[in-house]
Amino acid sequence: MANSMKKTSDCVNRILSHEIPSDVTIHIGGASFSLHKFPLVSKCGYIRKIVSNHKDSDILVIEIPDVPGGPEGFELAAKFCYGINYELSTENISIVRCVSEFLEMTEDYAIGNLVTRSEAYLDEVALKTLGGAVTILQSSINLLPMAEKVKLITRCIDTIAYIVTKESEFCFGDLVSSSSNMKAIVDWRVEDLIMLRIDVFQRVLLAMISRGFKQYALGPILMLYAQKCLQGLEGLVKEKKKIDSKQEHEKRIVLETIVSLLPRERNTISVSSLSMLLRAAIYLETTMACKLDLEKRMGLQLGQAVLDDILIPSFHFDGDILFDVDTVQRIMMNYLEYELESTNIQENNMEKVGKLMESYLAEIASDRNLELSKFMDFVEHIPEQLRYQMMEFIEPLIFT
């Protein structure tokens, strides 16, 4: 199909050359358009109805509120009415589709009207590629609620989910859930998805899962999205600086949504990534459910952790305590609970966690702000299975 507006006529040319004076002024969002009734009413049902109620007016002034796309959207519709050529593209098709619906530019008023033209472009061109669907989806977000009414957002999400799922099967086939395969997933066209707003991003991922996308493969996508949205937060965390309340609210919603979407399988997210999310959750004061979820996930993979992963700072801004020992204690208990429930307790893993706790105790022992009673409480809550591994280390700390 032709993707440009090519209809012109002698009549329109005479109008555009000002041989016929303007007989209607249309005000939209602070902009004024001096136009002519005939080309507008011939294609716009919305304007035809207004004009029909003002037959006695030689010069009509019309105020149209809430036009999708504002003056830019109306101008595109008006150009079509006048037969002025312009290209449809993935950048303007969402505005064209929404404004044509708003102005009732349907086949009831003209054959090959703008609704039909824009629908044909969407079906035959724009929604055939992932990049096109993402571009249209991003611009459609600014055109609510009309974009939902014409199902632009739903169609874009369905297209993205379909293409992503099919391409993922081709790109990494039956890869198992292991860190060695994560790079292949991350390298695969994720940049097209992480630019979306969080609520739309969530809808896309859920649509992908419903189409059979491997849930374990969501991990790297979610972490890239988290890194983009939480950029700059780590510096504030380290310096214990407060964040603007509006930004804090936005980032909190992003983080809670990301955590709710994390795959349930172990090892799909590295311990260091989980630690980063947990620090952010504590700093942003997310829901307790969000923090406990991350703590449990870290506990299940504690045998892979290094000291930096559990050196979680306390975010009491009065400077009371440097380290958040309560959080680490819960992580440790989650680990032990998982190990005890496992049919095959890994002694090697237990030894690693024991040595990790040794290093952690040595580090927090140097915290002058940490009260001795708090330190002793942590030691006393170390389970016997781990304490046995650490006894040679713990006894000197207790009696010095």
UniProtKB/TrEMBL annotation:
**Record keyword Iron-sulfur present:** no
Q: Which InterPro entries match?
A: BTB/POZ_dom, NPH3/RPT2-like, NPH3_dom, SKP1/BTB/POZ_sf
- Name the protein family: Belongs to the NPH3 family.
Q: What superkingdom does the record give?
A: Eukaryota
What is an example of a Pfam family matching this protein? BTB
SUPFAM superfamilies given in the database record? POZ domain
Alphabetized, the UniProt keywords read:
Ubl conjugation pathway
Q: Where is the BTB domain?
A: 22-90
- Report domain NPH3 positions: 187-400
Q: Does the keyword Repeat apply?
A: no
Natural source organism = Lactuca saligna
Tell me the protein's name: BTB domain-containing protein
**SMART domains recorded for this chain?**
BTB
List the PROSITE patterns hit by this protein, alphabetically. Answer: BTB (PS50097), NPH3 (PS51649)
Look up the record and name the pathway of this protein: Protein modification; protein ubiquitination
